[in-house]
Amino acid sequence: MLHDRAGSSVVCSPALLDWGLGVSRARESVEERAPREQSGAWEFLYSRQEWSTPELRHDWQSLIEERSNPRLIYQTPGWFDHLTSMQTQEKMAVAVTRDRTGQVNGIAPFRIAAGALDFHVSEHTLARIPVRKALMLGGLPLFPENGLVLDKLFAWMWSFLPAVDGISLSGIEVGSFLWRYLHSSTVLRDRYLLHVVEGVRPYHILSLPPTFEEYLARYNSKKRYNLKRQIKILRERCPGRLELRRIDSSDDVQCLLDAEAQMLPDPRRFSGLGGKQSDSFWTRRKTVDMAERGFLRSYVLTCGDEPISLIKGLQYGKTYSALQTLYRKDYAHLSPGAAALYLVVEDLLKHRPAQLIDFGFGEPNEKHHTSNATLEMACVLLLRKSLLNRIRSEAHAAFFSAVRAAKIIRGRIKSRNRSEPCAA
Length: 424
Hints:
alpha+beta; 13 helices; 424 residues; 15-stranded mixed sheet; disordered N terminus; disordered C terminus; 34% helix
């Protein structure tokens, strides 16, 4: 343990040596005077034995219960355990800070992983710039709203993680304390380049009332009629029974994976809402582990024995995270994705009731999500100051600025074409 003149400290595990990290520069990152209610110390825990003590787990869970972040599932100790149980080659650690009484009041779990700055248009990736990142789990730390505390955390990471190009944060709401801190901290400005990845984007959530009847009452009579009509037509067109199957146990996982396997191989026949691609996140081993930890809650909509749509999702507490929707393209005219969501909302209000659906970043079909609330959020990459990283950041920002401008122009052209039909 290193102690500074103000009485604060940074605790360094022997595992630091395995990360190729030194401790000589730690002192300079903790020598600022600590706020009165804060000890100023950050502990960095690098082994399962260190971060699995009952006391830390209790304090960690207490911090979770004080938050209402829609992405809270990814900050939980259970999700951290899920990731560590996968035994990947990624390095993982938990940073902990305490108040003057010794009570944990800030936790920042993170992992070191190879990533990239993608240059893409819709689902088409044109180029990738490799970036080695320290990713905050859940996108942001569980922290007290104190700039000096965050200064110490990010200064330490800058000193002790020289092989890392940057620190990745996501789900930061515009105007929040963290957003203001990132744009005003001199400690960050001296060490990092602030890169807002792909700019500020809409983040969609849907609050749910206590009953399905109240949910339907949000829509006008025409919308309610159309939703029920879509379900009726699907039932009439199905070669067998139209059924929504909830996937939330390890015994159900194979049903989900089989349905996905039928949908993904032929992109000409199947497509995903939002253009998201399948990835190894949904391997059998990982999906079973999520089910055993109580996180998995996905759905498969079938016509007879044939899946026509699925929603991949997770649930923590009262928040349901809808991660991806897939549907059969030859059923697209019957809106199977919208039908699945209609039936899923009904189930979410009856079984383990949810109060919020988190759709995440994107531009969902307005026809299907007219009751969504939209937040302004961003993903931020704190890049270590260097000429190479400045070039990376500016090139990436310029590309997506051009993409956004092109979308605006295309939208104006479409609007003009609708309002000015060609004369006969």
